[in-house]
Amino acid sequence: MIKGNRFQEKYHFLEQYFGYKHFRPGQEEIIDSILSGHDVLAVMPTGAGKSLCYQVPALMLSGVTLVISPLISLMKDQVNALTSMGIRAAYLNRSLSMALYNKALDNMAHGVYKIIYVAPERLVSEQFVAVCQSLEISLIAIDEAHCVSQWGQDFRPGYLNIARFIQRLPQRPVIGAFTATATEDVKADIIGLLQLNNPLALTTGFDRPNLFFSVMRPDSKPITLLKLVRERDNQTGIVYCATRKRVEEICDFLCEKGFSATRYHAGLTDDERLKNQDDFVYDRKRIMVATNAFGMGVDKSDVRFVIHYNMPKNLESYYQEAGRAGRDGEDSDCILLFGLQDIATARYFIENAEPNSEMTPAQYAAFKQKEGERLQQMISYCKTEGCLRAFMLQYFGDEAEERCDKCSNCKTSFKTVDVTVEAQKILSCIVRTKERFGAQLICDVLMGRESQKVISFGLQSQTTYGILKDVKRAQLKSLIESLEAQGYIEYLGTGRPVLKVTESGWLVLKGKVQVQSREALQTRTTAKPEKADVNEELFRELQAVRSEIAQQRGVPAYVIFSDATLRSMCQRLPLTDEEFLSISGVGETKRKLYGERFINVIRMNYPKKGGKMPFKITGEQLRGFEYSDEPIYASEIANRINALVVNPTRKKLAAQDITNWLVSVNLLETVKMNDRILKLPTEKGLQRGMLRQYRENENGAYYLVLYERQAQEFIIGHMTEIMHHSALNRLKAYEINDKIFQA
Ligand code: ADP
Ligand code: MG
Ligand code: ZN
């Protein structure tokens, strides 16, 4: 009975506060489990919506929910997001001043908050524990729960205090542990060290259907990067580099080319890191160039692309970093720029990894061995000609279709050609030069180039010298890559790797195997269709309103509404409160706070069959308005304004638009005089510089209204209101017409 009610109830909370209609995979089971008092261990990929799994129960349970998170920077944003949905929440960590901390603690003791975020260090503060002991705590949610395990890279000693803290509470609350990455070892650690009680262990699939995966092997990474960020004009993205030095170079490079970029790595001061991160999160900078130090604790949901300038050292890191794109569920691109040098760099990092102080030498050796294997898989991902998504999902133990149709390999159209003869020539050149050289020199020899190295090694006398002189270098290189991808040759050694023929390569040389190569005809690196399917102008305007509101409230833009929510507004064009509320991502509180401002913008861009769009002018354009020192008529003001904009798809401003608005703010009033309806200045209007001008004709006396400079300034200063007012009237007129037509 109670369960049945709660089942309904959680939908109500989902809709009322978060503005969503449906739960995502896994969320419902987890929430049900928590509500029935059963611990949970949830492993869900980044962006799957873990927060909601504890936030919805937090609203429904009678007591307080504590959320333990290692990421101080994230707490503020999460609390902002909750507050803006009308949920009472706070955070307690060392970023607060003493006074603020005490205030928050006091509020907490008085039951002001429903959800409280704390850093694990808090759990050993006696003052904090005392408050917790006096409260009803219904749920403890442990975010990034893998931090409790020493096996992972994010081990946080503070997490080891959690179990002891829970024991000290008078009543054991339900415990929910959440993480995006957990191997079996880590899962066992989480259950053991957090003392979860026979938890519901739920792992949702790793697939992120909205992400488009690409691997490119560019001849020039800087040029390719430039092209990629140019194509993604106005989008927010992250560029990951392997080293601090590279981060500096690339960030400088992008800035020089006029892009709005900032950087993040462990070599910067705390202050600068924080500032740069904020610039990115609050959309003051569009591109973040960073090492892998960046990302944890950044929940920015509208990251549209993640480009890896270098290959990471394993697929776990890659998927985690690339997965920071598209948390809002919108199409986003994950592009990896692969170069052979990346392999050497990754090997170097593994060789020189600091041993964890807890590891025995044997464990350390095993760790390195494991890291080497993982690197090998990462390399295979870069080289595979099969579906990238399938490769990744299989690596993580998920089922996968053979093709996803949403990765660069699936989306590249190939032409298969027989290249056995060329392959034999290449292989033979490698063998005859004694497997001492890399691709560059092999190409030189095959093409018959007299490069310095060819001469100094005396390679002109080789029988293979010049046997492929009609082939272009780029083609030859991609042929060599293809042979490598198919396992006929391999690179050996670090630093300057040399090419070696493998066993299957020898079969080719002996004529026992035919070689096929796929030539890419066209490669795609994005899921975006060529033409946008929503009104881009409206989308930009909604974005502008969103960033205005975000700035006023001092929160990141995505906390107000996600891109997905704005797009949905563009498609559905809500005009009433009710329609606005029905947009996914709009809850009751947000509707009340922001509905009007967004609806105003939508009204301004609302298309109607057979009619033009409402009049519109920007503040920039309006700056050209020529004021008259003599009093002028409203029609003259309208003329001067219309002279500033040319837009054939929109209506012109009419004198009536101005005077109707002036009536609505009580500066003019409608008066009947000799069978005429006149709009004449009120007392207030007279004070604002509106004049009555006496006129007479055969029908009798009447007045015209003139506007002094002061009144002109007032009108220009309120142009936005005038536009919105006229757009609203236009829709009302349509509605009346519609009704007349229907009748
Ligand atoms: P995670 O912590 O798993 O990486 P988040 O909790 O930050 O993911 O959620 C990612 C995004 O998904 C957020 O913008 C959130 O509002 C959105 N989201 C979560 N659940 C739903 C849902 N049921 N419907 C629509 N959007 C959702
Ligand atoms: Mg999260
Ligand atoms: Zn694919």
Walkthrough of the structure:
With 743 residues, this protein is of the alpha/beta class. The protein has five domains: 9-203, Rossmann fold, CATH 3.40.50.300; 211-395, Rossmann fold; 413-522, Arc Repressor Mutant, subunit A (Orthogonal Bundle); 536-603, DNA polymerase, domain 1 (Orthogonal Bundle); 619-741, no CATH class. 46% of the residues lie in helices and 15% in strands. The strands form six sheets. Strands 3-4-2-5-6-1-7 form a seven-stranded parallel sheet, with helices on both faces. It has a six-stranded parallel sheet with strand order 8-13-12-9-11-10, with helices on both faces. A two-stranded antiparallel ribbon has the order 14-17. It is globular and about 110 Å long. Zinc ion (ZN) is lined by residues 387-389, 403-404, 406-407, 409-410.
Number of helical segments with 4 or more residues: 32
User: Sheet bearing the most strands, described?
Assistant: 7 strands, parallel
Shape: globular
User: Structural class per helix/strand content?
Assistant: alpha/beta
CATH architecture assignment of the largest domain: 3-Layer(aba) Sandwich
